[in-house]
Specification:
The complex is a heterodimer of chains A (255) and B (262). Chain A is globular, with a radius of gyration of 18 Å. Chain A has 255 residues and is of the alpha/beta class. In chain A, the strands form 2 sheets. Chain A has a 6-stranded mixed sheet with strand order 6-7-8-3-9-10, with helices on both faces. In chain A, strands 2-1-4-5 form a 4-stranded antiparallel sheet. In chain A, β4 and β5 form a beta hairpin. In chain B, α9 runs antiparallel to α10. Chain B is globular. The two termini of chain B are 30 Å apart. Chains A and B meet through α1, α2, β6 and α3 of A and α1, α4 and α10 of B. The complex binds adenosine-5'-diphosphate (ADP) and magnesium ion (MG). Adenosine-5'-diphosphate sits at the interface of chains A and B.
Chain lengths: 255, 262
Amino acid sequence: MPEPVIEVRDLRKVFAKTVAVDGISFSVQKGEILGFLGPNGAGKTTTIAMLLGLLTPTSGTISIFGKSMPKDRQHILQRVNFSSPYTNMPYGLPVMTNLKIFSRLYTIPNAAQKISALAETFGVAHLLKRRTMTLSSGETARVNLLKAFLNDPEILFLDEPTASLDPEAADTVRSLLLKLQKERGLTIFYTSHNMQEVERLSHRIIFLHRGKVIAEGTPESVRKQHGGSLEEFFIALARSETTPPAAHSGHEEAP
Amino acid sequence: MNLTRISGIIFRHLAVYRSNLARLNEILLWPFFELLLWGFFGQYVGRLSALGFVVAMLLGALLLWTVFSRVQQSISISFLMELWSRNMMNVFITPISIAEYLTGLMVVGLIKVAFVTLLMSTVAWLFYSVNLLAIGLPLVPLAAALILFAWAIGTFIVGIVLRFGQGAESIAWMFAFFLQPFGAVFFPLSIYPSWLQSILWWIPLPHIFEALRAVFAGQSLPLQHVAWAYGLNAVYLLAAFMFFGMMFEKAREKGFLLKLQE
Ligand SMILES: Nc1ncnc2c1ncn2[C@@H]1O[C@H](COP(=O)(O)OP(=O)(O)O)[C@@H](O)[C@H]1O
Ligand SMILES: [Mg+2]
């Protein structure tokens, strides 16, 4: 019997001039890898930020582990984590120091052991003494992922986890994620605009366009629905400038 | 309030000094040279006026002023550092509460200022044979009052930065300088025109420095000034915390916590 760990109802976020997320509803099952897709400006990051309590929804409800975000923020945040190439840990500090800091913020007992065990898993044991700023982007991605596993999250949110990586480094990250997901029965909610990645990783995808869910299902079923590859579907969508934006009048698309 | 999380914030901001010794300049060298300057100046004035306690008084005022400005700056700069290093999202998706976060920053300010006080009193003693700590017990309530006011101002500035982004950065550095001419730090409040005096009494600073001068002049600690300083501090602190809370809510609404990353 599947058990939803995330339930989102009629979620909406309006910035001054933009409807970033326009009334979306979905749920994510325990142990599921959900690919949250869409062209730039579709509302992916905005959605993740609301799920993490960094952004207050304009309307709608978010329930994670049956608790409500943002009301039970602290409870939820202790059990989830997040990683993205668009955030860093303090770059002047050694990797180990940064990981210790986050261990405290997550109140992890025996942090040193935990960190060295995870460092083996992510192949970064040799980097722990290095300053964060001296790491390559592939190394940074693995260290950021390590951070995201410090609190043994039950749900991992990833915003374009492989965006800044070369194909080899991206592949390493994907393999690691798949392995850890299987071992831990982890739920992964991740955004991407890399179609191959999505097909390889996701159990299910949600296609977002201009803040609305326009397709949902397994990668195969979405492919069948729309005929042709996901990539073609994606490009067609991104180019469909004729569809009027969700609210107000034209020209307010993100730069 | 969770002590481990608070200690995480403290550790984060002190670790910066361990891994980058150059940063120590900010808390060691600056106060050192400032103290030298005012020490020599005080000696000169003392010679002119034959007032022996001028050096001690100037340096005492400078020490307390440094306590205030360092603590305030420490809070604001720590927060800005989080922005510069694009670490904001990482911190605020942990279970830390904003009260815990602020507490961490305030304690970091305290720790830094303890070092500065030690340094300055040592230097004053070595160079000018002035024992700043000789004021003794009255120094404690006065320094504490300044720290409270510094927490209030530091918190207020962090709120401004949250609202207006890094554009407001210079305020974090400059605010203490702006305030200094109006704090009656090195001279009595009676120097100001009377209309200005009646405004400045609503800031804790003149009360604290008037009290300091009284002590230097050999009087006992003027409790009325101390009471005013603490009363005003309570109001400023409450207002600053409320302002910060509001700005944080606003940041969550407008997405500043994300935007500040870029
Ligand atoms: N803090 C913000 N203030 C105003 N508009 C924003 C803000 N964040 C995102 N937007 C707008 O919301 C829309 C969705 O953005 P985003 O969620 O970042 O898209 P994605 O992550 O799918 O590329 C875009 O039009 C973007 O310009
Ligand atoms: Mg995005």
